[in-house]
């Protein structure tokens, strides 16, 4: 701000010239740096997708995996991925949002809450393998249910809970105070204000959070290997919560690290492409309602 | 969020229906649940056997996972797995690991191992002594064993890997590995080993014979090539058994499963296709 | 009024605690409605508190699990040796974890050094410079990078990045903390830049307008007004990214070399806490000192990230005061 006022005060244009030069330089720099990054990302995506997508068939997507012959599919693993993602979101989103709303709206501003916040961030940094160990201790050793979809999904939810909490808190805090006060002034209760004003205004941030955790859950392997196993029940559409639950990411890991099938490389290329494609789809699908809303409100 | 809710309600409903459906109608009367954990090198074999076994006995549930060999017998001891897959006989002491009391070892397959090098390495053949020197860090340049003048890059598996235990016992005759250095790295799985050796010039590593591809070179050891025939006729010594460990003698579905995997039908069929060697091939 | 005690928001609007007043003025049925609303309100708040407590409980559950097993290490190894010795040869009963602790700090620092400037530039681009259509296109693409499984990153690192580094620098292997930091940068970049992007976008328009009205250029506005105003959000993004960098395993383990030696050069196979845990945890006997030492390292990892978070928070508070 000092520079700005200084430049304005200067009767000569030299200061302003440097500023505008800086400004242009900066704009050019930001554009080129971002363009380089975007190119890099696109190259990365192209690299992953071009190896897999062209040869993709429905037989592969819905087929059963094979250990010996070529042509095994990823059907059950892909199904498990969606099924587990759904269960884990079902646990993580309400809990995470509630905790985030508490931290943003109800929590008093004291040391204890500061401590809680550090806990949440700390939990977000726990390596996934440790969640896996925790999942084993909880589900396999304590509840003795073995390697199951349920155990994997709950462990995944634990992994995603802190991220959802923090994203919710941040985006609710970012809602301008006037909106909230206006709602209170209309006589709304706190709950009504949260439901009708804060959450809808923070929806952009919340959707980002949702995309983040959905993507992470979809791509996570370490937790699931430990808590849900590396097998599927061997059939499609198995909704039993106590079946073993190999997901696509785990299958990818398995194919890359141990599988003996002759077409392992092509399977892993295709599986990686499917993974990335699905995550791309999530991001677009979750966002379409936002775009429509934005367009309407303009 | 409403669609989300109704979707998950539907999912739950279908889940309930499908469990009740799968309980009806079965060909075999054998029931039970088998949990298998342990060696990742034996995982393809286990998964294939599990698939075939489930077709014969639809009421048996099999879930398999893999972490490392030692996890197998340990999970069995803890009671969280019925079968522990392991690359050595865990009812005996091996270098680095004590035996597991009260567990029974069942041989399920013969696994040959091979020393492999990157394609740019000129060496074709190493003696046991040369292998020992390379993997213990005494020889660090390929020219000392008949190759070009280049540093040897040693790629090793992590301690406790079944492949590592077998390679150390059979190929290096117990010699200790090096553990540090600028040209030394460790990898986590057979697949990582394959990628590392394929992409790193002047590297040497080792793996199950199954994983050897045309993008790398399997070395002759003491002038004997690592082939199935040489394992069977007794000239190639670097191989080991794969074992299933159980707590005492197995019963029920577990027993049936182990018998199935040891049956001539499976051993000479799928097991051979997976490029393991049937246990009956060597007396 | 008893309802004053039930809902007291932290950032209380003027009317926040007197929420029932307008309802009371309504028709005869209002009393029921008021009670019902109050009940919902209280119930909702309780549910929120329960969730927050639950999140903390998970952390304590994990800390307890790691500590319970980890502390057994010190029956056989002195803490001095564990924390300050660089000799990690468990097969010979020598458990010095300093190499891994140092490696974790070095790797995290290096990653942040590369990724934070890059991410903030991208965030600024997305929030301030890019036209709307490009923004709407790029945001999902960035989110997508988060979802790519770490196994894929590791594999690409091993097959593309490392040969590239080997060619450029002429080293023998290419494995080491630089390769790991580059892979991690790509992994944390979307996290940091998306969260910062949201934070920058959330800075009220009037700040920017005021700055422009004073004659500031876009460059000045962004660096002197927008970024400082969004500091807390950006910092949160950095924490999240840092947390992911500290905790990432599957990708790091493929490019770091996994050798227990001090990371005193960019290209030297080394090892960090996570990669060492994931390499060895599956292969050690359950009740051995080795296993306990790995759990202790897991506990340490948690403590390190908690400490780093506290540190960042303190810095932030200091910054806010000055």
Mean pLDDT of chain C: 81
**What order do the helices and strands of chain B follow?**
HEHEHEEEHEHEHEEEHEHHH
Helix vs. strand class of chain C: mainly alpha
Note the gap between the termini of chain B.
65 Å
The biggest beta sheet of chain C reads: 2 strands, antiparallel
Structural class of chain B: alpha/beta
Architecture overview:
The complex is a heterotrimer of chains A (298), B (283) and C (322). Chain A is mostly helical and 298 residues long. In chain A, 76% of the residues lie in helices and 0% in strands. Chain A has helices at residues 2-9, 14-52, 58-62, 75-106, 111-124, 128-142, 149-173, 177-185, 190-201, 203-219, 222-228, 248-257, 264-297. The relative contact order of chain A is 0.13. With 283 residues, chain B is α/β, with parallel strands linked by helices. In chain B, the strands form two sheets. In chain B, strands 1, 2, 3, 4, 6, 7, 8, 9 and 11 form a nine-stranded mixed sheet that branches. Chain B has a two-stranded parallel ribbon with strand order 5-10. In chain B, helix 5 (162-170) links the parallel strand 6 and strand 7 (184-187). Residues 14-26 of chain B have low confidence and may be disordered. Chain C is mostly helical and 322 residues long. Helices cover 72% and strands 1% of the residues of chain C. Chain C is built from 14 helices and two strands. Chain C has helices at 3-6, 21-24, 30-70, 79-84, 98-129, 132-147, 150-169, 177-201, 205-213, 218-229, 231-247, 252-255, 273-280, 289-321, and strands at 88-89, 94-95. A two-stranded antiparallel ribbon of chain C has the order 1-2. In chain C, helix 7 (150-169) crosses helix 8 (177-201), helix 9 (205-213) packs antiparallel against helix 10 (218-229) and helix 11 packs antiparallel against helix 14 (289-321). The two termini of chain C are 41 Å apart. Classes of the chains: A mainly alpha (298), B alpha/beta (283), C mainly alpha (322). Chains in contact: A-B, A-C, B-C. Chains A and B meet through helix 4 and helix 12 of A and helix 1, helix 2, strand 2 and helix 6 of B.
List keywords for this structure.
heterotrimer, A: 298 residues, mainly alpha, 13 helices, 76% helix, 0% strand, globular, disordered N terminus, B: 283 residues, alpha/beta, nine-stranded mixed sheet, two-stranded parallel sheet, 10 helices, 11 strands, elongated
């Amino acid at each position: 701000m000092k520079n700005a006022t200084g430049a304005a005060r200067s009767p000569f244009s030299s200061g302003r010239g440097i500023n505008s030069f800086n400004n242009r330089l900066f704009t050019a720099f930001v554009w080129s740096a971002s363009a380089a990054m975007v190119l890099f990302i696109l190259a990365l995506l192209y690299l992953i997708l071009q190896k897999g997508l062209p040869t993709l068939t429905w037989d592969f997507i819905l087929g059963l995996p094979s250990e010996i012959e070529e042509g095994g599919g990823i059907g059950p693993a892909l199904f498990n991925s969606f099924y587990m993602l759904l269960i884990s979101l079902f646990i993580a989103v309400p809990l995470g949002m509630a905790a985030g709303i508490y931290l943003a709206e109800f929590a008093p501003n004291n040391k204890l809450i500061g401590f809680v916040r550090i806990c949440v961030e700390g939990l977000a940094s726990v390596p996934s393998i440790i969640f896996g160990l925790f999942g084993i201790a909880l589900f396999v050793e304590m509840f003795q249910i073995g390697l199951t979809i349920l155990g994997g999904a709950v462990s995944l939810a634990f992994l995603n809970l802190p991220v959802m909490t923090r994203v919710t808190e941040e985006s609710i805090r970012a809602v301008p105070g006037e909106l909230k006060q206006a709602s209170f002034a209309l006589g709304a209760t706190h709950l009504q204000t949260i439901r009708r004003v804060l959450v809808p205004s923070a929806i952009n941030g919340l959707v980002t959070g949702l995309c983040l955790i959905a993507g992470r859950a979809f791509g996570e392997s370490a937790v699931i290997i430990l808590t849900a196993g590396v097998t599927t029940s061997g059939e499609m559409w198995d909704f039993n919560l106590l079946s073993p639950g190999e997901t696509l990411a785990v299958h990818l890991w398995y194919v890359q690290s141990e599988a003996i099938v002759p077409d392992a490389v092509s399977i892993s290329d295709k599986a990686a492409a499917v993974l990335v494609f699905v995550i791309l789809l999530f991001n677009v699908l979750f966002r379409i309602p936002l775009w429509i809303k934005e367009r309407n409100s303009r | 969020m409403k669609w989300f809710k109704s979707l998950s309600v539907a999912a739950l409903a279908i889940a309930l229906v499908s469990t009740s459906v799968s309980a009806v109608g079965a060909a075999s009367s054998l029931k039970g649940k088998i949990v298998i954990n342990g060696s990742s090198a034996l995982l393809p074999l286990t998964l294939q056997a599990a698939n075939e076994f489930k077709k014969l006995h639809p009421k048996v549930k099999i879930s398999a996972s893999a972490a490392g060999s030692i996890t197998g017998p340990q999970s069995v001891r803890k009671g969280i797995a019925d079968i522990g897959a392991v690359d050595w006989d865990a009812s005996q002491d091996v270098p680095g690991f004590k035996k597991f009391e009260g567990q029974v070892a069942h041989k399920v397959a013969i696994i040959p191992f091979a020393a492999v090098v990157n394609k740019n390495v000129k060496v074709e053949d190493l003696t046991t002594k040369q292998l020992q020197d390379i993997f213990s860090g005494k020889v660090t340049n390929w020219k000392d064993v008949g190759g070009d003048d280049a540093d040897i890059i040693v790629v090793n598996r992590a301690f406790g890997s079944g492949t590592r235990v077998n390679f150390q016992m059979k190929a290096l005759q117990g010699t200790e590995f090096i553990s540090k250095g600028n040209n030394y790295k460790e990898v986590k799985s057979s697949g990582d080993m394959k990628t590392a050796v394929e992409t790193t010039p002047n590297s040497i590593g080792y793996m199950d014979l199954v994983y050897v591809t045309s993008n790398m070179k399997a070395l002759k050891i003491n002038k004997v090539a690592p082939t199935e025939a040489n394992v069977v006729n007794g000239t190639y010594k670097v191989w080991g058994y794969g074992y299933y460990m159980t707590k005492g003698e197995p019963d029920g579905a577990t027993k049936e499963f182990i018998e199935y995997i040891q049956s001539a039908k499976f051993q000479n069929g799928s097991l051979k296709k997976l490029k393991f060697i049937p246990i009956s091939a060597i007396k | 009024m008893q309802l004053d005690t039930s809902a007291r928001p932290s950032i209380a609007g003027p009317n926040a605690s007197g929420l029932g007043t307008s309802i009371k003025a309504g028709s005869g049925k209002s009393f029921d409605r008021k009670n019902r609303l109050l009940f919902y309100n209280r119930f909702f708040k309780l549910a929120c508190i329960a969730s927050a407590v639950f999140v903390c409980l998970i952390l304590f559950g994990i800390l307890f699990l790691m500590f319970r097993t980890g502390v057994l290490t010190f029956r056989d190894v002195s803490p001095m040796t564990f924390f300050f010795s660089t000799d990690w040869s468990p097969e010979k009963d020598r458990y010095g974890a300093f190499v891994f602790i140092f490696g974790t700090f070095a790797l995290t620092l290096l990653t942040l050094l590369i990724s934070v400037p890059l991410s903030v530039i991208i965030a600024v681009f997305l929030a301030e410079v890019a036209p709307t259509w490009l923004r709407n296109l790029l945001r999902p693409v960035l989110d997508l990078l988060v979802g790519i499984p770490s196994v894929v990153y590791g594999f690409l690192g091993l097959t593309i990045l490392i040969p590239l580094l080997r060619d450029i620098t002429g080293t023998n292997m290419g494995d080491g903390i630089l390769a790991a930091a580059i892979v991690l940068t790509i992994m944390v970049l979307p996290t940091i830049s998306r969260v910062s992007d949201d934070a920058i976008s959330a800075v009220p328009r009037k700040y920017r307008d005021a700055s422009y009205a004073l004659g500031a250029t876009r460059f000045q506005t962004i660096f002197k007004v927008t970024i400082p105003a969004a500091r807390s959000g950006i910092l949160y993004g950095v924490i999240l990214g840092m947390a992911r960098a500290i905790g990432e395993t599957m990708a790091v383990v493929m490019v770091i070399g996994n050798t227990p030696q001090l990371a005193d050069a960019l290209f030297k196979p080394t090892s960090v806490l996570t990669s060492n845990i994931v390499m060895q945890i599956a292969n050690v006997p359950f009740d051995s000192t080795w296993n306990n030492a790995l759990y202790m390292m897991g506990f340490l990892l948690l403590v390190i990230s908690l400490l780093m978070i506290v540190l960042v928070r303190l810095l932030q508070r200091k910054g806010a005061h000055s």
